[in-house]
Amino acid sequence: MSDRRKFHRIATDQVISFSQLDRPAMLGVSKDISSGGIRFEAVGIEIDLGDVLRITFNVGEETVVASGTVVWATDTDPITQEIGISFHDIDAHAVELLDEAGSSPLEPVKSF
Q1: How confident is the prediction along the chain (112 residues), in pLDDT tens digits per residue?
Q2: Which is nearest to 59 in space by CA: 85, 92, 82?
Q3: What pLDDT is stored for residue 76 in this prediction?
Q4: Residue of 88, 71, 83 whose CA lies nearest to 44
Q5: What does pTM read for this prediction?
Q6: Which fold has domain 10-103?
Q7: How far, in Å, CA of 79 to CA of 97, rounded?
Q8: Which pLDDT belongs to residue 8?
Q9: Distance from first CA to last CA of the chain, Å, rounded?
Q10: CB neighbour list of residue 29: distance below 8 Å, 6 or more residues apart
Q11: Please, are residues 69 and 85 in contact by the beta-carbon 8 Å criterion?
Q12: Residue 80's beta-bridge partner residues?
């Protein structure tokens, strides 16, 4: 079975901030990210298809701010939604960082 996705997804569980362009930022937890978009969980807010959101997240040591459109939203419980964003405004350098991160093998986590 072939993967129909355009972009390689990078699994993540980082805290991100997101906001509608005219609203205060809220926190969410990213599930995966690519140079084309992000999937994250949002708690306690209703987000609708077509909403435009500004997303702030990290790629390595760099902070990225991007904006995109909600292309899908699924209720996972009464107060939590899983959201899929398609980026339409993201810095070219951030795209390079995400593409590099997606093509590099993940290093094992070291335990101390």
Answers
A1: 444 445 566 777 789 999 987 889 999 999 998 888 999 999 998 899 999 999 999 888 889 999 999 999 999 999 999 999 999 999 888 888 888 876 654 444 343 3
A2: 92
A3: 92
A4: 83
A5: 0.78
A6: Thrombin, subunit H (2.40.10)
A7: 33
A8: 60
A9: 39
A10: 13, 14, 15, 16, 40, 41
A11: yes
A12: 43, 77
* β-bridge mates for residue 55, sequence order: 18, 66
Looking only at the bridges linking them, the beta strands covering 80-89 and 10-11 are: unpaired
CA distances from 55 to 23, 48, 81, 103 (A): 12, 15, 16, 23
CB 55 within 8 A of CB 20: no
Cβ-defined contacts of 85-89 (< 8 Å, 24+): 85/37, 85/38, 85/39, 85/40, 85/53, 85/55, 86/36, 86/37, 87/35, 87/36, 87/37, 87/38
- Domain limits of the chain? 10-103
Burial 23-34 (b: 16+ CB within 10 A, else e): eeebebebbbbb
